[in-house]
Amino acid sequence: MANSALEGKSMQVSDSIVKTIEKALQNNKSSPGAQRAKNIVNHPQLTYYNAKRIKNFLENTDNSSIEYQLAGGDQMKKAIDLWLNEKRISANKGKDLRTSLGNENQHKKPYKRNSFKVGLPIAAPKADTLIENKVTILVTEKQINYLKHGKN
């Protein structure tokens, strides 16, 4: 599933993770990562975007560092992984069901044709319009209006 379907979703941070962060924060109020820890404690709701950022941070930080503990540590990493997997699976279920019922290509994005744009193909001249190395180009009224006014 495209992660774009998860944008706008949010995850509630459990009380046990908040307590773990509070405990780590007691002795490390001015450490790097303390502001993020305070934000999580004060607002235990993570947007999809912030959950991804915290997950990336936890995956690329030494798990014995204080910043790792202030971000929620292993508990937070597992909780984010579970939440993301659950949301991705639930979004795919509908598409999988429609596919099993015979509708093809449910996992592909629908094709959207662009409206009139610069670079439209211009009708090719017919062989009988070629006279002494001169070419007649046929242009539609819509193309002429676009060239004149810059809109459809």
Describe the structure.
With 152 residues, the chain is mainly alpha-helical. It folds into two domains: 98 residues, no CATH class; 40 residues, no CATH class. It is 49% helix and 4% strand. The chain has six helices and two strands. A two-stranded antiparallel sheet has the order 1-2. Helix 1 runs antiparallel to helix 2 and helix 3 packs across helix 5. The radius of gyration is 28 Å and the shape is elongated. The relative contact order is 0.12. The model has no long low-confidence stretch (mean pLDDT 77).
Descriptive terms for the model:
two-stranded antiparallel sheet; elongated; mainly alpha; 2 strands; 152 residues; 2 domains; 49% helix
Nutshell version of this structure?
This protein is mainly alpha-helical and 152 residues long. The protein has helices spanning 15-26, 34-42, 48-59, 66-70, 73-100, 141-149; strands spanning 10-12, 45-47.
The overall strand count is: 2
Quote the beta fraction: under 5%
Q: How many helices?
A: 6
From N to C, what is the helix and strand string?
EHHEHHHH
Gap from first CA to last CA:
35 Å
| Low-confidence runs of at least 5 consecutive residues | none
Query: How much helicity do the residues have?
Result: 40-55%
Q: Outline, from the CA principal axes?
A: elongated
Kindly name the structural category. Answer: mainly alpha
Largest sheet: 2 strands, antiparallel
Radius of gyration: 28 Å
What value does the average pLDDT take?
Answer: 77
The total tally of domains equals: 2
Widest sheet, order of strands: 1-2
| Assembly state | single chain
